[in-house]
Amino acid sequence: MASVLHGLRLRQARERRDAKLTYRELADLTGLSRSAINEYFTGKVLPPTDRFDVLLDAFGVEEDERRALATARDRVEEHLHAERSGGAPRRRVPRELPPPVSSFTGRSSELAALDHLARTAADPTGSAIAAVCGTAGVGKTALVAHWAHRNRHRFPDGDLYVDLQGYHPDGPVHPAEALARMMRGLGVDDALVPEGLQERAAQYRTLLADRAVLVVLDNASSVDQVRDLLPGGRAFALITSRDSLAGLAVRNGVRRVPLDLLPHDDAVELLRAVLGAERVDAESEAAAALIEHCAHLPLALRIAAEHAASRPGAELAGLAQEVAEEPLALFDEVGDDRTAPRTVFSWSYRHLPEHAATAFRRLGLHPGHDIDVGAVAALCDVDASTARRTLRALSNVSMVTETDRGRFSPHDLLRCYATELVARDDPATTHAALERLISHYCRVVAAAVDLAFPSTRRTPSAVEPADTTVRFESGREAVEWLNHERAALVALTRYAADHGLPEFADALSASLWYYLNSRRHFTDARVVHTCAIRAAQAHRDRIAEARALNHLANVEWMLGRFPAAAEQLRRALELSRDLDSDVTAQTLNGLAVACWMSGQFTEAIPYYRQAVPWAAGSTTSAGSCSARSAPSTSAMAAPPRCSPTWNRRSP
């Protein structure tokens, strides 16, 4: 009861906004001796009932609380009497684990890691604390519950469980309240739970000092929420969190077990466990598509599987298509707001600081699968170091995953959620962010092409390389970057054309043409150059349109479609003649080559002859090289001995 008396004494001081009563003052108030009060407050002696009542009077305890405290005092007396008589009451063995998830599949490496860590719980030199960290819906609680039930034999003194509600809209559970819950689980009466956080933490650790107990701290939001809940001795603590809890790893030696999205084979096994092997195997391609559309997220997969189970006659292909068309809408039909992915994502999002929330939303604007620091800096209009810190903050709470290439990616359902959020932003703000992003990419693409293809005649554009946040060590690295970003670059060219940014569509077309052709990405090349043409037409930029027509003709030429190439070049010539010697020289030279390769030799010669004086007036190497690269007039005058038109060698 000593801790109770100390708590009452402290509470009274706070209420009076004064210092705690001294033992002398308590003696004067109660008529008890100072030595007796010292024994009561140090726990050496249990106060007799009448003296306990006198102390309660001195502390101003009201009737309801007085009755509860009196009952608690009587239980302590019974406990002491049982100990003196050699019949100490049996310790309470709590069994508080939530039920295991049915149809649990996979996670063999993570389960093995927890097995290994549990074996160190009895070793004073090893860590007895593990943290399972991962994004919302990835199955952290399911993994811990499955492992804990399978290993209950390791913990004969029981298991404690607290849902810390770290991301709940009502707010997280305070550490002091969590300690009180666990102490009650260990058999401590409410009245004997100390008032202060540190006092509770100390008593909690004392209670667990010699007990082999499993402590599960579920849904922790931060290091501060769980630090005082860590046990010692033989207890083994398992924490789950969306946060990386890096501070616990550094200061408390907590071993982290990262939990990623479910591998494909394990995801298939999950569907087979819920829907039956025969149904899943019969529609294996549809099952694979459903897994992809659910982003390999266990929560989404379970909801989709239960949805399919409720419609046994429906095809999985139809369900996969539903998820593909509206990735988050189907999951809202689960009937439990706390289970729907959109809801659990929102709990994480609401806890983000403003700068991180802005960055997360704008990830929904980026068309690629992942993103680098420079692109995020452009989207958020910040410097690279700020963007890097922001991405690391998102990674720490599992809103994005950092790859070994220094890139960051939310999984597909989180990306859909980010897209939903950014759609609510001010359209002008969103457009400005995308304009900065495309400008950034135009400059990086130009720098990459100049390094990777130094001998190529890249047509200068209105957006030229400047000091960028992306650095390439070699031409190979530049090409790898272009390969990785290709789909995003095509999508951004389309956006530029559709949203009044013709200079960016022109710049991307001018920079990417050789890379796309040399890697035979002809479909993407058609899209890029067609978008540049459309953008130039909308803004009546004849030179930009002619330039893009030249690049489109180059694609046709690479495909052996020389008449089609010539047609595009004739359109370009009509636009550029008398306006730009560089574009005109390239166009005439291209027409000469296209006609020659098509077998139209007499038509080729005039184009070549016209190209020479235009090339002489060219201000760039691109134009002046055009005439030099054309076949000679004499060569054009006769059929070539080896021509793609004939597709055979002359005898």
Keywords, separated by commas or semicolons:
651 residues; mainly alpha; Rossmann fold; two-stranded antiparallel ribbon; 31 helices; 5% strand; disordered C terminus; TPR_rpt; DNA binding; P-loop_NTPase; Transcriptional regulator with XRE-family HTH domain; ADP binding
Name of the level-1 CATH class of the largest domain: Alpha Beta
Number of helices: 31
What is the beta-strand fraction? 5-15%
State the assembly state of the protein chains.
single chain
- Helicity range: 55-70%
Category by helix and strand content: mainly alpha
- Sum up the overall morphology in one term: elongated
Strand order of the largest sheet: 2-3-4-1-5
Number of strands: 9
Task: Report the radius of gyration as a whole number of Å.
Answer: 36 Å
CATH architecture of the largest domain: 3-Layer(aba) Sandwich
CATH superfamily of the largest domain: P-loop containing nucleotide triphosphate hydrolases
Domain count: the total is 5
Terminal-residue CA separation: 112 Å
Mean model confidence by pLDDT:
85
Characterization of this structure:
It is a single chain. With 651 residues, the chain is mostly helical. The protein is 59% helix and 5% strand. It has a five-stranded parallel beta sheet with strand order 2-3-4-1-5, with helices on both faces. A hairpin with a 4-residue loop joins strand 8 and strand 9. Helix 26 packs parallel to helix 28 and helix 29 packs antiparallel against helix 30. The termini are far apart. InterPro entries: Cro/C1-type_HTH, Lambda_DNA-bd_dom_sf, P-loop_NTPase, TPR-like_helical_dom_sf, TPR_rpt, WH-like_DNA-bd_sf, WH_DNA-bd_sf. Pfam families: HTH_31, TPR_12. This is Transcriptional regulator with XRE-family HTH domain.
